[in-house]
């Protein structure tokens, strides 16, 4: 994605609790003379800020750090919900003169645990199988947490739907009772009117 040199850009990730999130990014600056983005942006860094929802519906800062023109950041989510990841360059130029465009390449991996390649290339096959097995167990735990989170969301949605359906049913019953009582009142009023006028 593209941002201005002094602009802040945020993305939202819906992340289950107790999940490792790893992000890799690279910044490229627009070159006016070449009319293209340079391969790197020397001298530029990125402020990365990660906030998560807390119990009292306020945002809690999980990560706030300055990185270089390319880097890797990681954090662990403690609560499930929408996490906000924001990027802003550390450019010291004034907003008027900071007209450069920046291109940010971003790769976010949620719940991924990377294998240690040096351990895998070890000669001992038992150790290699052990490392791969631990990696698979971590992946299974991540899938289980993801399923639990989706189950929680489905349960909340189902409760909301049932409450809405119940409200609609009671509203329909109340409307029916009001219509019946108005009808009975109108019939009685007409009957009393006709009797008073001696038409019946």
Automatic annotation (TrEMBL):
<keyword id="KW-0472">Membrane</keyword>
<feature type="domain" description="GOLD">
    <location>
        <begin position="8"/>
        <end position="110"/>
    </location>
</feature>
<dbReference type="InterPro" id="IPR015720">
    <property type="entry name" value="Emp24-like"/>
</dbReference>
<feature type="coiled-coil region">
    <location>
        <begin position="119"/>
        <end position="146"/>
    </location>
</feature>
<keyword id="KW-0256">Endoplasmic reticulum</keyword>
<dbReference type="InterPro" id="IPR009038">
    <property type="entry name" value="GOLD_dom"/>
</dbReference>
<feature type="transmembrane region" description="Helical">
    <location>
        <begin position="168"/>
        <end position="187"/>
    </location>
</feature>
<comment type="similarity">
    <text>Belongs to the EMP24/GP25L family.</text>
</comment>
<dbReference type="GO" id="GO:0005789">
    <property type="term" value="C:endoplasmic reticulum membrane"/>
</dbReference>
<keyword id="KW-0175">Coiled coil</keyword>
<protein>
    <submittedName>
        <fullName>TMD11 protein</fullName>
    </submittedName>
</protein>
<keyword id="KW-0812">Transmembrane</keyword>
<keyword id="KW-1133">Transmembrane helix</keyword>
<dbReference type="Pfam" id="PF01105">
    <property type="entry name" value="EMP24_GP25L"/>
</dbReference>
<keyword id="KW-0732">Signal</keyword>
């Amino acid at each position: 994605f593209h941002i201005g040199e002094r602009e802040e850009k945020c993305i939202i990730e819906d992340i289950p609790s107790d999940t490792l999130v790893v992000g890799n990014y690279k910044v490229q600056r627009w070159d006016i003379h070449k009319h293209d983005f340079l391969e790197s942006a020397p001298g530029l860094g990125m402020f990365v800020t990660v906030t998560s929802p807390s119990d009292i519906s306020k945002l809690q800062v999980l990560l706030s750090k300055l990185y270089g023109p390319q880097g890797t950041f990681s954090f662990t989510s403690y609560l499930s919900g929408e996490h906000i990841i924001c990027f802003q360059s550390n450019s010291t130029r004034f907003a008027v003169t900071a007209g450069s465009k920046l291109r940010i390449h971003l790769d976010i991996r949620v719940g991924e645990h990377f294998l240690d390649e040096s351990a895998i290339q070890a000669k001992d096959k038992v150790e290699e199988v052990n490392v791969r097995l631990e990696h698979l167990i971590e992946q299974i735990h991540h899938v289980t947490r993801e399923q639990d989170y989706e189950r929680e969301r489905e349960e909340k949605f189902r409760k909301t739907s049932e409450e809405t359906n119940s409200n609609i049913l009671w509203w329909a019953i109340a409307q029916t009772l009001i219509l019946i009582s108005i009808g009975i009142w109108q019939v009685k009023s007409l009957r009393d009117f006709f009797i008073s006028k001696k038409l019946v």
